[in-house]
Amino acid sequence: MTSTASARVPQEERTRLMRARLLDATVECLVERGFSGTSTTLVSERAGVSRGAQLHHFPTKNDLVVAAVEHLTHVRGAELATAAQRLPRGDRRTRAVLGMLGDHFTSPVFTAALELWVAARTDPALLAAVAPLEQRVGREVHRLTVELLGADEARPGTRELIQATLDLVRGLGLADTITDDARRRDRILDQWATTLDAALDAAPPTHAPQTHEQEKP
Fold first, then answer.
1. Backbone dihedral region of 216: left (phi > 0), alpha (psi from -120 to 50 degrees) or beta?
2. How far apart (Å, rounded) are the C-alpha atoms in residues 23 and 47?
3. Where are the alpha helices (H) located in 150-176, listed in sequence order?
4. First and final CA of the chain: distance in angstroms?
């Protein structure tokens, strides 16, 4: 390895660590103070990074907060993949999948993302950055849920059941941002696991003929 390469690697690592500190500090601010209470100055102070260095990597607040939520989403995605490997087989699997999703939608990544969704509603520039990220994350969580439940989306109604499941768990996560809703959430997920198992088991065969009234999958 040349001396130039040797010098470059530590610098690259320092840059990576600095960016990570900035992104982690941004998420902390979003969760604690909301979007309006998060500023680039506050983030740089919390991260222990100079304003100049912060502005070099993230020139605007929008750049910073979108990158932070994307960063945390990648981290949370890896955690979901690890949690998925520990899921039980058999009768309790559906409930365990719902519990895993419930943890995801009550995690800091959801709270931080929620702050961005609300702010993006009236900020076209932020919306342009947030919408593609949310769509990508939504597709990935949907795909993972289908895989973990062993659901066949070729069956009429199954895709809608999966989406209804994600809408339900997301809504429960939203309720948890106001008050600790763990007990009620557990009861609802217990019931939904039973309902979901019955609905998936009762789904018509993949090649069942469709009536004109049925929506194409």
1. beta
2. 8
3. 158-176
4. 56
pLDDT in tens, 15-49: 888 899 999 999 999 989 999 999 999 999 999 99
How many of the other CB atoms lie within 10 Å of CB of 9? 10
Element holding 69 (H helix, E strand): helix 61-85
Cα–Cα distance for residue pair 165/198, rounded to 1 Å:
14
* For residues 116-143, average pLDDT: 90
Q: Alpha carbon of 59 to those of 44, 48, 52, 142, 157: distances in Å?
A: 12, 17, 9, 33, 46
Give just the sign of the alpha carbon dihedral 86, 92, 95, 99.
negative
What are the Cα distances from residue 122, in Å, to 27, 43, 63, 117, 128? 21, 23, 17, 9, 11
Q: Enter the pTM of the model.
A: 0.78
Which residue in 165, 166, 171, 148 sits closest to 83, CA to CA? 148
Whole-angstrom distance, CA of residue 101 vs CA of residue 64: 26
What dihedral angle (degrees, nearest 10) is formed by the CA atoms of 196, 171, 217, 127? -160
